[in-house]
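TICKET #2291
ISSUE: user wants both folds in one file
ATTACHMENT 1:
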Amino acid sequence: MTDPTWLTAQRRALVAFAAGAADPAGGFGWLDSAGERMPDKPVATWITARMTHVFALEDGLGDPGAAALVDHGVTALLGPLRDADNGGWFASVVDPTKSAYEHAFVLLAACSAQAAGRPKAEQLLTEALHIVETRFWDSEIGLPFESWDPAWTVTEPYRGANSTMHFLEAFLAAGDVTGDKVWHERALGLAERIVHVTSAAHGWRVPEHFGADWTPDLGYHREDPRHPFRPFGSTIGHWLEWARLLLHLEAALGADAPGWLLPDARALFDSAVRRGWGVDGRLGFVYTIDWDDLPVVRERMHWVIAEAVLAAAALRARTGEEPYADWYAAFWAYAREHHIDPAGGWRHELSPDGVPTDGVWVGKPDTYHAYQATLFPVLPLSPAAALAVR
């Protein structure tokens, strides 16, 4: 496994780069490839929440400057990004949409800030739990709504596996931080429906897009295959992310964990490697494939290799089996050669030949995946990282 000293150095370098995203006006901005905030990109809730989460973890590791950055994020989430009239969080300071994706990360950030003992974190966590419970949780079927208009009057007929996956992540943290295990039970329900039932029925390919009745829509966005959040086909990185989260869930549930979590995690990992790694004759994971397993978007995304690192590390920790250690080493070798930028941050998107591109992502706005890849391999699978670092 990769030298912990090297992982620590990489983690600290990512934090130093990410600190430049702090916007004096509030929240965290979108960084370009050089680490400068892009003035044409509005402060977004998903970036601010992710950064808040990252700095809360770093605070737990003893970084003396991290606490102020956590507070900076929490203040923005309680300020300009929050709907003071109707409750909940806008997508950005200029977009009033209220989406499950953003709310999942607000909940995760709130849990991490609360674990860090930051002064306004309890207020943020209380409201985040309330909004998720009352607006996004469809109690009749045990799955989330995807989005609402600002007044909570109209919900989108679309349902998404991506936001559902991040709710699972946030629910694990909520169960650990609050002590209320109902969040772990809900997380299990999400995993069972999306992975154990639906993905298994599709040959261990994860359907990403669903109608309002949760019927998979396999043709969704066929005409927009490079959509940054809802691309056509299936997204290999999410298979790896689901695999890891199943193992965190199993560890959180302990003796109450069903027996299918580990086999399903293995199946998703194996499917991702078989169908995504180097399948176009170039090293690395293709971004998306169609339902005949043909690559659609071939660019290599930094977050996908980060999740591959994390899934391999989690499976190695859970099983003790050496092939997962071999994959872990291979994935890190690829990331080190192609994605880690000596000038700072990770190159977010590469062509199949390893050349930086921006067909899907511009700049380096996301530190969350890369940061977790440098930290989680040295943490236990449970409890949530915000508690484990302490």
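ATTACHMENT 2:
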Amino acid sequence: MRHLLSGLFLLIVLLLHSTANAQTARIENITLRGNQRTYAPFLESLVTSKAGAPLDSARLEKDVQMLIRLPSVAHAYYQVFHSHGDLYKVYITIEENFTLIPYFNLWTRGERVWWTAGASEHNLLGRNMMLDVFYQNNGKHSYGITYRAPFLLDAKWGIALSFKDFTADEPVYFGEITGIYEYKNRSMEALLLYQLNFYHRLELGGSYFRETYTFVSGAEEIIEKPQLLRLDKYLFKAFHQYYRVVQYYQYFDGFISDFQFQHVQALQSNLLPFNMLDYGLRFYKRTGEKGNMGARALLGFSTNNETPFAAYVVDNHANVRGVGDRVNRASAVFALNAEYRHTLWENDWFAFQGVGFADFASFRSPGAEFASYVSPENLYLNTGLGTRFILKRVYSATLRIDYGAGLLENNAQGLVIGLGQYF
């Protein structure tokens, strides 16, 4: 019995000694390598592992994933080397992205062609600030500029500013009758950005904008339709994102949840304010060495159902590929997108993917009941094939080419070319 107690005591001492040694392993210093265009003190401010702190592999892995999320970082990894005693040297190696990106988007429906051209810098001054300018021609002229600095104040606080002047011909519905209006939206927006922790981030702010609707054609039966409608509005916005994705170059695994609330108030006293709620869920799963499955669900709802100038649109780049440019308006929307991406060939700087996809969307017509969600004219189902040309060392440099064909009656088909994965 005495030998048993002695053995048990020795085992406890060894376990405590082992635990104490594990707990005393500390970081002597952290060295960042590979950052030529990104300001080193900026990167160091984002890394939560510090010299003198306990050596924690889980925290280091989070730090690496945080760096990979930055536009200026294509890939990152860490290495640990024993120095002396209980001290260890940590090296974080960064493979940088090229971040000045010219872009060109093209989409077609029948014989009509729309295009957008612009340029974005995503590592302005080496601090991962973004500056974007664009011009769009869809028979009308649109342009805009956006400045976004998520780490302007410190590792958690930032701002975003934008100005946009957008114009397009859009359908407006008076019950079953359709009219075409030129829609113009000129807006200025300011947001405060806050990174709560590794997974959660918030955006709060608002915008002032002027909407102008100018009658073009159609709806001849509606005698009292407005010929010109000009509305000045302000908007309050709150956005939350839960981000739990592990990224390895063009591959994603995990999910992203987005929730947004908007309150819109017109300055004209005869117009009631309204609210918009939007929720999006993106899911990614790596399959084998070369495959990546993706799915997205979008749900949007606005309280201004009675107006013909509804908040949501059916559009190539928003929800259904191949359907056309802003072909329908709605006061509520539900959309599902699914695709499978397979890397057919790649090297250390380039990857080529083949994609198969299916897009479904259902809309509530302005002024209609929720039952209009299942009305045949409000259902869209397109399937198609596409390709992705990916520059692995250039931020968001994925050239997307998709051709979607409608499977339901009156659904359109067309080519959609854009920059970046669809979702």
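RESOLUTION: both attachments delivered.
EXTRA DETAIL ON ATTACHMENT 2: The CA atoms of residues 48 and 63 lie 7 Å apart.
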